[in-house]
Specification:
- By secondary structure, the protein is mainly alpha-helical.
- It has a domain at 52-102 and 110-183.
- The protein contains 9 helices and no strands.
- It has helices at 6-16, 21-24, 52-63, 70-91, 94-101, 113-123, 132-143, 151-159, 167-183.
- The radius of gyration is 26 Å and the shape is elongated.
Length: 195
Amino acid sequence: MWHPGRCEAQFFRILLGKNVAAIDKPMKHRARTKAKPTRLIPRTFKCYLNLPRIHDVLKELQTLNLAEFENAAAILLRIFIELAISHYLDSTGKINQLVARQGKKSNTWSPTLRQMLLEILNKDPIADLIPRQARKALNKAVSDDEYPLSLDGMDQFVHNPYIAPNAKTLFQMWSQFEKLIELMMVEHTPPSKKP
């Protein structure tokens, strides 16, 4: 009885004088495993802001090999998040309201990342656009310093020589901020004043 592939196998056996039994067997397809990402922020994440510094920091985060540069990635992530949030509050004019509520401070005073993030989560409509679970994680990051992905933990990577970041923690931190920061990667304008 004729079978597809067996005639070809017989032909190659005769021609080459070798055993080509592999041709007689159907090929098995291996399931492809998804490669682990080596960059903290994927290159598909886009920034449309007119601030070169934010573009530069994002590009570095998208270029750094996380396995080799966990410390640099942790510090850059902290900087990127703060720059994005600060720019958003500046461009919408909401930073002035936050500064005014803090009382009499010097003209050079700026709110902390924690103060800015609380302002957005509690008072800004952009927070309503992120998924509930992401918002819950961000609220926990701001309010609970014992939370492993807290802002305090992120600050410890910068200021504490005994606490080191690892790739898994950095991916989790980025994951909780990603949707909010993505919304901030386009230029925003202050709301128009009502007549």
